[in-house]
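Note to self: user wants both folds in one dump. Writing first protein now.
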Amino acid sequence: MTDTRFDLAVIGAGPGGYVAAIRAAQLGMKTAIVEREHLGGICLNWGCIPTKALLRTSELYIAMRHASEFGLACDNVRFDLARVVERSRKVADRLANGVAYLMKKNAIAVIKGTGRLKGEGRIGVTAGSGEALPDIEAQHIIVATGARARTLPGLEPDGRLIWTYKEAMVPTSFPKSLLIVGSGAIGIEFASFYRSLGAEMTVVEMLPRILPAEDEEISELARKAFVKRGMAIHTGTTVERTLKGADSVAAAMKKPDGTIEEIAVERIILAIGIAGNVEGLGLEALGVEVEQGHIVVDEWCRTGAAGVYAIGDVVGPPWLAHKASHEGIVCVEKIAGIEGVHPLDKIAIPSCTYSSPQIASVGLTEAQARASGHELKIGRFPYSANGKAIALGETEGLVKTNFDAKTGALLGAHILGAEATELIQGFVIAKTLETTEAELIASIFPHPTLSEMMGESVLDAFGRALHI
């Protein structure tokens, strides 16, 4: 590395960091990015992308096992775990190479090493070998170091019997039974994948319901769907202790009534959330505030230190790749002085869980809307009444919409069912445009499509549903 002076430098090349770097380069800034491990970060290499490749395999496996329902013969369906994992890794590698190409295309200097803030406008870099590389100077520095899996005392991952998401994505043998601790998106997606391939599945959640960030009605419907698929789900329950064996682990689960239930499984997957990667960055010396393991920033992603910004998982929830990318764009455009830049509106961030069935949402839940003082009009439309869903054999699910009764403003939308994660974007656009029921009712939804349920849910909220 011969050139060490830049307009903007980013520490971390995940979906927030590399997108911020690309946008800065597009705006004419001389840009560098420091990454110690993978271009694309955890999301691309160990999260969002490879898990979706695994889930696609499980979807096809289930479809093939039910081929006779579609008039097809598909006997003796089986899976090759090594090839399933191999495909997932190839998908991740392909996209990581794509990020490397984008860095080159946009003339972004990629510096392999661990970055640390060394003072105003300066980053120290240490190579993987421990060698100190030349310091980087930059007028603006964005910290995008992401986060890591949280652990619990007595449930520390060992890579053998107790797994994090990393081990869960590259198993060398298929576990016949699993206990997943945590029922957020990560836990539910792994539960869906392994259960679809035949593992006995138990999910433990300390809160009163699974998918606690989702609308309560959708959460309960999802629970029923997962139980129907053979999962055992324990809410209001904690894992008190574990006892490891040669190739299995016993866990003591404390139920809501205080009783203890013992369970023995081959593997445990820990999915209880994440903690920001704030250590070793030199934040304290520059006066950057950290609260509950996350960097404190303002609406423009500025920290308390001049010229230092932070985006993505390291600044806190929602811990989503698309949120990180959008923050990166907002941050860079504000630095560049572009007019008309708007701060990130967290209410308009979609949430997606790629399980079977899928769950997706945007905006306020029913409970949140009521707590905010809104009088509501709520619409619901079931998948079972939609022609395309029936033709697909995907009749399990619901589209739910919440509107302000006085203004007609769309407050929130919640979907459980096939392709929910694709359908939700229509409501995201509507919410971003501050759409009311009038515009949605006037919109023409093509027939036959799953999207018709979106329109019907809106109609139902105002007493005009046509097909129920």
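First done. Writing the second protein, which came from a different request thread.
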Amino acid sequence: MKRVGNLYQKIISLENLYQADQKARKGKKKQYGVQQHDRNQEENLKALHVMLRDKTFTTSSYKVFTIYEPKEREIYGLPYYPDRIVHHAVMNYLEPIFTANFTADTYACIKTRGIGKALRNLKKALTDKAHTTYCLKLDIRKFYPSIDHTVLKGQLRRKIKDPDLLDLLDDIIGSVPAGIPIGNYLSQYFSNFYLTGFDHWLKEKLKVKYYFRYADDIVIMHWSKEYLHQLRVLITKYLEENLKLQVKPNYQVFPVAARGIDFVGYVFFHTYILMRKSIKKNFGRAVHKRKPRQVLAAYYGWAKHCNSKNLLRKLLENEKI
């Protein structure tokens, strides 16, 4: 793996910090932190450049809060200035480097991929009925909190040889005692990068053809149920020994035709796709409570990618989207 260097001075340049500021604020211009920063934007960016140049920047304290939908999770928030600007400044240069190492089979938080591409590719794979008879579905126990700092730092050092940038990344990684914080802009890339070696191992060494990963949600299809059970054992061993991760005990191996594959908000069968039951219920509640049109439009956009004509007719017969 070729290592990249000479990035830090580019990352901390005033030009890049300004670009990072513009990216970080998209959709957030009315937030208090952005408005506070804008009162002294030029001075703040110059001061941030000096902090980074002089190596006095350290990650700020987090505000931690809990969300309960779609499941209970602790979210870590950092101030807009300086932290979120720094994260975007770093990713202006690291994003193409990370993305170039990802396999085509991972979809979360990657430009030009996401849920839409995962849906299309899984739908296409299922047209090969003879080789997608069974599905192995699993995910990783407490994925973000379980990411090992030493392992992640070692992975970064195998790709990056700029000591100043590595020091900055070490500070961000070490800003929580364990794992990586859900809510950090950098965390979504760190998590994908953490599993990249695993992706390549499955695709290139084990020659797994039908493999899909969205964050830590993993789907593998094959014609042999026995093969998938054996593969699950190998995956469990690899994750434990190489990444210090554990597979949740609720893994499943099942016939696709009988149950469908619950993935990225849909349930996939060989010849049709349904909306996930929980999303369908939330859609129904939104209609019943007469939520704003933009909320209903979002659900409609979700529904139009699956076989939901009857559902839409029933729910929206009196609505105009």
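Dump finished. Worth passing along: The chain has a mean pLDDT of 93.
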